[in-house]
Design a protein that fits this description.
It contains 15 helices and 5 strands. By secondary structure, the protein is mainly alpha-helical. It folds into 2 domains: about 210 residues, Rossmann fold; about 70 residues, Orthogonal Bundle (Tyrosyl-Transfer RNA Synthetase), CATH 1.10.240.
């Protein structure tokens, strides 16, 4: 079974990325052959700063490895180290209905946020479909916001199979209900583009500051509080054990503890949770060639599979 996922190097990784995509992806390594990549071609749709793109890409590789991605079990690589994927994207684009792409939520959201409406941005889902199909992927762990992209991937695979015979497997998305939308410090979906993130490897002072600025209602300290609507409680429960979560729920409902104290407890939990990963990150950074070696090895494995699948595709379509 092959598991595949990608993450754009469009900024610094946050705990929404961690619980929505990275942790499930890391856990799935035990179940099959994992192929995880840094979607730098995709990031070009929103980032036009070569230095930032290079730095972010390296940092995503570093952070992913620090969080437990095992390069012996799976492959970690840069999307652009397998340029065949853009050839497949072209072929897929010839069967992709305009109407399908026009219904893309993420395209509309990005335009609304002021991302320039380029043909690349419009074709984003086609390139993503190529990413998935070129590795004969079975399972794709992602957060809920990527669900529609995977439906499009399945549609495009189906269209190709109809037109040219059985070329592609239909991949299954894997979306975890409990962590499908991690809230940001303002209570909306945590996202780089909303400026409401808590970063996985932020420095201590800044991380504390972000936690202390989680938006709350104005219930006074003594009064009972509703855990189900509290961002602090929702975030805390991602990090805490069942018992710890229940204990905090009771203290919310009882009253007598202010939001400031709950935030401090959440900060401590979060800081402790990522401590082993911070340590691992330091070790990786100390080994200058480690990341380059991992990425080169990953690219080799990914290229081997992509070459085979592209042979099949070229032959099926008549190239
Ligand atoms: P961002 O919204 O910060 O730009 P990306 O779109 O780069 O994040 O997302 C990378 C991966 O992390 C995707 O699989 C996405 O579904 C997941 N993800 C991002 N934010 C969240 C969140 N708040 N909750 C759950 N998953 C998330
Ligand atoms: N679009 C995904 C995101 O923004 C990143 C991505 C690109 C991806 N190609 C992929 C995810 C293939 C899974 C599979 O998060």
């Amino acid at each position: 079974m092959r598991i595949l996922s990608g993450i754009q190097p469009s900024g610094v990784l946050h705990i929404g990325n961690y619980f929505g995509m990275m942790r499930p992806a890391i856990a799935l390594q035990a179940e099959g052959e994992a192929f995880y990549f840094i979607a730098d071609y995709h990031a070009l749709t929103s980032l036009r700063d070569p230095k930032a793109l290079r730095e972010n890409s390296r940092r995503v590789a570093l952070d992913f490895l620090a969080c437990g991605l095992d390069p012996e079990r799976g492959a970690l690589f840069m999307q652009s180290d397998v340029p065949q994927v853009t050839e497949l994207a072209w072929i897929l684009s010839t069967v992709a209905p305009m109407g399908l792409l026009e219904r893309s939520h993420s395209y509309k959201d990005k335009l609304a946020r002021g991302v320039p409406a380029s043909a690349g941005l419009f074709n984003y889902p086609v390139l993503m479909a190529a990413d998935v199909l070129i590795y004969d992927s079975d399972i794709v762990p992602v957060g809920k916001d990527q669900k529609q992209h995977l439906e499009m991937t399945r549609d495009l695979a189906g269209k190709m199979n109809e037109a040219f015979g059985e070329i592609f497997k239909l991949p299954e998305p894997r979306i975890h209900a409990a962590t499908e939308v991690v809230p940001g410090i303002d209570g909306q979906k945590m996202s780089k583009s909303y400026g409401n993130t808590i970063d996985i490897f932020g420095d201590e002072k800044e991380t504390r500051r972000r936690v202390m600025s989680i938006v709350t209602d104005s219930t006074p300290m003594e009064a009972p509080k509703d855990p189900s609507t509290s961002t602090i409680f929702q975030l805390y429960s991602l990090f805490a054990s069942k018992n710890e979560t229940e204990e905090m729920r009771e203290r919310f409902q009882k009253g007598g503890t202010g939001y400031g104290d709950f935030k401090k407890e959440f900060f401590e939990k979060l800081w402790e949770f990522f401590a082993p990963m911070r340590k691992r990150r330091g070790e990786i950074l100390a080994d200058k060639s480690y990341i380059d070696n991992v990425l080169a090895h990953g690219a080799k494995r990914a290229n081997a599979v992509a070459d085979q699948v592209m042979k099949r595709v070229r032959s099926a379509v008549g190239l």
